[in-house]
């Protein structure tokens, strides 16, 4: 009785704080009813966002401070140091020394991340990936804060809190973690249809990359290059991995969450430790200011990409990641990126999502890193000196000498003094801006489906099947039948066949009308058209005592010389002895290894009576085969492929001539998958 009374009294105390939002008008935190919550206040429909937009600032400030101290998004990350070197000068387009000096090696720090999950979530969830690069230049730090998907869910930054609230775990029970297969997210999608293009990417293989080393990076926004003559050009940034762009299968990604939730972290760390330094080429797409309106989409719309066939990507330099961090917290956790960290020659556009980020990132760092001096942390500190009249605050490390801390002054000769553009001072591009103060979206932003269809048209048959399966899984997890119906009706505008197939799979009425008039495709969007190489691929080599020492060693030496990473698996971890006294070190057994940790399998075995065929070995082989991976066998290992009836199947190699086998295996492995095995 006493417990019940106390509980009721506590309920009464808390009742004043319980707010039911359903059926109410939207207001600010001060109770002011707002007539618009979709668009930030801009100077004209395509103009810049205005600082006076109190509603946007209140909404974004509250959102930025929702988590302490973990990042609200991109919480789970992993990073490395490296360097960037330019191929050719871009002085025609920009005065940024970073992009004009080909002899300079610029230090970089890159943080890869998932977006949705908490710091403790797994690496391989279906999600967008962050790809943030800090360039430590002689003119100051430049941050290229990118994703592995070139578009975003929303067009205006005022909607960012909404989309993140929607894809995060549902607030009443904090479920599910690092997943979008729930009602809130898909309800948001169906009622915010500007997300259509991004959703197609999220449902594709791009959202489950094989490795950080094998995924592209995109600056998403349209920025400006500005040259010495103060001429401006629109630019988009791309990172292209030299290993190609490759992905996991959905089943692999799910299994890896349990077997190795640090799969991507381990992959990056180990590659750098063994000297397989990840490389990414930096590419730019450039549009002249005079061509701003010649496309069938608005180049400032963050839900649109610039098709590479229309605006080619020019590769201008290479980044190499060659050093792991010394301390995860001090570097990876404390690094602070900001798209507003620019250098002379790089400027902004009126993309309303970019405009919001220019406010939000600093605001976020203030609470996450404890105050305004986050730039003084070693990982964030520029390599060039900095001088200004900012003082004190939490975490201050600089010991400023002298009595003057204001501008203008005479006591210190009016220093630190502003620098002219000729002296390297930053000057914003003088774009003419005019328009009424409005909360509105430009008419040029209102096509939400054409590029979503372009993406679908660009996919191969296996990639389309994976998208269809992803939709069916995600939407199938939605409990509300109404939301499921809204989603399939929405995506009928992208492709009617896709929507009808998903509708049947998730138990709603297939739409009868829809489709898109768009027939154009962009081959660059399909991962089947990426770089294909066997370099750095992990090969499970299953052998036992008595294996043919000289021949197997010749194969492994050939693979290592060509950049493959063979991993010996045997009955027991330790030294395995073959003929001619050749010894190999088994670092795994079938209890510690799993096929999803490898890109291919090489079956050797040993003497006839070694390592009996059992359910573990059968499952290992079956799973690798079902995941369309290259499988090879020589010597006694050939018998196991015969038992599993894999012989004469695509991507399955049986070898007698070891030199030919080694080469054929590498060619087969370079294909990444053998989609001929997949029933579509």
Description:
The chain has 680 residues and is α+β, with helices and mostly antiparallel strands. It has three domains: 41-184 and 192-376, Catalase HpII,  Chain A, domain 1; 451-528, Catalase, four-helical domain (Hemocyanin, N-terminal domain), CATH 1.20.1370.20; 532-677, 3-Layer(aba) Sandwich (Rossmann fold). 27% of the residues lie in helices and 18% in strands. The chain contains 17 helices and 20 strands. It has helices spanning 2-15, 54-64, 160-167, 183-191, 196-202, 250-259, 263-273, 328-333, 352-368, 450-458, 461-476, 481-491, 496-506, 549-561, 615-626, 637-643, 658-670; strands at 41-43, 77-86, 105-114, 129-137, 140-147, 217-218, 223-226, 232-241, 279-288, 314-324, 346-347, 437-439, 538-543, 565-570, 574-577, 583-586, 588-589, 600-605, 630-634, 652-655. Strands 2, 3, 4, 5, 6, 7, 8, 9, 10 and 11 form a ten-stranded antiparallel beta sheet that branches. Strands 17-14-13-18-19-20 form a six-stranded parallel beta sheet, with helices on both faces. The chain has a two-stranded antiparallel ribbon with strand order 1-12. A hairpin with a 5-residue loop joins strand 7 and strand 8 (232-241). The protein is globular. The model is unreliable at 1-6 (pLDDT under 50).
């Amino acid at each position: 009785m006493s417990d019940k009374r106390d509980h009721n009294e506590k309920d009464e105390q808390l009742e004043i704080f319980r707010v039911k939002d359903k059926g109410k008008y939207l207001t600010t935190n001060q109770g002011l009813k707002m007539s618009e919550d979709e668009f930030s206040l801009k100077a004209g429909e395509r103009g810049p966002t205005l600082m006076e937009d109190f509603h946007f600032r209140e909404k974004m400030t509250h959102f930025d401070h929702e988590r302490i101290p973990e990042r609200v998004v991109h919480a789970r990350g992993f990073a490395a140091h490296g360097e960037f070197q330019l191929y050719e000068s871009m002085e025609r387009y920009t005065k940024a020394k970073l992009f004009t000096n080909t002899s300079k090696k610029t230090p970089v720090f890159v943080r890869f991340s998932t977006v949705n999950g908490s710091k403790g979530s797994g690496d391989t969830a279906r999600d967008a990936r962050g790809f943030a690069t800090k360039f430590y230049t002689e003119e100051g730090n430049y941050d290229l804060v990118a994703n592995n998907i070139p578009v975003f869910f929303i067009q205006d930054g005022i909607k960012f809190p909404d989309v993140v609230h929607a894809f995060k775990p549902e607030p009443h029970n904090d479920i599910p973690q690092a997943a979008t297969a729930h009602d809130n997210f898909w309800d948001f999608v169906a009622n915010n249809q500007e997300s259509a293009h991004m959703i197609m990417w999220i449902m594709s293989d791009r959202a489950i990359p094989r490795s950080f080393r094998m995924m592209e990076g995109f600056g998403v926004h349209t920025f400006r290059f500005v040259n010495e003559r103060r001429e401006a050009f629109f630019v988009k940034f791309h990172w292209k991995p030299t290993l190609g762009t490759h992905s996991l299968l959905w089943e692999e990604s799910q299994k890896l969450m349990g077997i190795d939730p640090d799969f991507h972290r381990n992959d990056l760390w180990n590659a750098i430790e063994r000297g397989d330094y990840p490389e990414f080429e930096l590419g730019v797409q450039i549009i002249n200011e005079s061509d701003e309106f010649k496309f069938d989409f608005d180049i400032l719309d963050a839900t649109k990409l610039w098709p590479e066939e229309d605006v080619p990507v020019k590769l201008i330099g290479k980044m190499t990641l060659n050093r792991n961090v010394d301390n995860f917290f001090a570097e990876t956790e404390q690094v602070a990126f900001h798209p507003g960290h620019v250098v002379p020659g790089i400027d902004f556009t009126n993309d309303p999502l970019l405009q919001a980020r220019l406010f939000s990132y600093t605001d976020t760092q203030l609470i996450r890193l404890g105050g305004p001096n986050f730039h003084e942390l070693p990982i964030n500190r520029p390599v060039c000196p900095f001088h200004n009249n900012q003082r004190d605050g939490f975490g201050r490390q600089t010991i400023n000498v002298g009595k003057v801390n204001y501008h203008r002054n005479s006591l210190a000769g009016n220093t630190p003094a502003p620098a002219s553009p000729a002296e390297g001072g930053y000057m914003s591009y003088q774009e003419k801006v005019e328009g009424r103060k409005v909360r509105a979206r430009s008419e040029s932003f209102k096509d939400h489906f054409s590029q979503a269809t372009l993406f679908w048209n660009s996919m191969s048959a296996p990639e389309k099947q994976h998208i269809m399966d992803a939709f069916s899984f995600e939407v199938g997890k939605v409990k509300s039948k109404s939301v499921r119906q809204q989603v399939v009706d929405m995506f009928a505008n992208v492709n009617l066949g896709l929507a009808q197939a998903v509708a049947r799979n998730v138990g709603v009425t297939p739409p009868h009308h829809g489709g898109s008039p768009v027939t154009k495709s962009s081959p660059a969007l399909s991962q089947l058209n990426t770089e294909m190489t066997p370099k750095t691929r992990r090969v499970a080599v299953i052998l036992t005592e008595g294996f043919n020492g000289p021949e197997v060693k010749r194969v492994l030496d050939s693979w290592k010389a060509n950049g493959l990473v063979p991993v010996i698996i045997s009955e027991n971890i330790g030294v395995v002895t073959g003929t001619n006294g050749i010894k190999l070190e088994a670092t795994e057994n079938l209890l510690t290894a799993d096929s999803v940790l490898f890109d291919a399998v090489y079956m050797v075995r040993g003497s006839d009576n070694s390592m009996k065929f059992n359910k573990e070995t059968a499952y290992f082989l079956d799973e690798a085969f079902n995941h369309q991976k290259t499988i090879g066998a020589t010597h006694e290992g050939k018998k196991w492929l015969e038992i599993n009836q894999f012989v004469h199947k695509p991507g399955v190699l049986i070898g007698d001539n070891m030199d030919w086998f080694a080469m054929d295996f590498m060619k087969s492995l370079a294909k990444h998958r053998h989609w001929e095995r997949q029933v579509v």
